[in-house]
Amino acid sequence: MHPYLLQSLDRCVARFSADPRCLGLALHGSIGRGETDAYSDIDVGAVVEDEAYEAVKAEMPGLCAELFGPISIWLPEGERPNYCNFAFLFEHGSDLLLTDFELISRSLLVEWRHRPDRILFDRTGLLAEVQQMERPAPAFGDAQVAHLIDTYWVYAYLDGKYWRRQDLYKLLYVQQTLFQLHARLLNLLRTGAEGSWWAGDVARFSTRDRTHLRAYFCVAGITAAARALARSIDLFADDARALCALRGMDYPEAREQAVRRHLRDMGLPVN
Q: For position 137, what pLDDT does the model report?
């Protein structure tokens, strides 16, 4: 993990622990589980009093710029009442770094039983209490399993006519759907639950299971995937510029170049 991310995290702890509106700060993901590597990012979450949520949310862009650095891209995700995850890219010298900062209210934390992986500070003991709560797994009975399998075969059937029509894009659509259904089924087979994010779930699968899932992809090798990425982002950039021009918008050239620079630094063959 980039050392500056850890320094930024220390500043977060100091700032939020001094704010009486904040009940606690916690880590999620690889950093919370102690599984980071040189490329890991930070997943941090703050719990605030319900009545303070909207005020703290409004402060987040400026506060994160102060604690982390100049923000290049600010991306709210999963926004709903009393919850939002802010994914943002920010600059530190010549580096472009990523953080996910989750903001959640007290009542929603308890309602969801949203357990932290690692607690950084806990003003009232609420986070420790939630961490000990059992989070009931969603029921997935025989009828749901049968429905999943039936869905798979119906979509597999569609491949027949799309192949006869030589309709590449519908074939790719079906392939994507079949892959996701298969990943859900493997999660049920191995863990009894559907899983949450397939890319994270698959990383914990056996070599055998991962090999089976790779059969769905036309691009199966890492070198070919890198070449495909380089080409696809070029095409996306061309189309995005055309759309911005059509709508009279400014295209975010600096953001694109910052991401390209980062990808080159990572060793990917991008322009």
A: 64
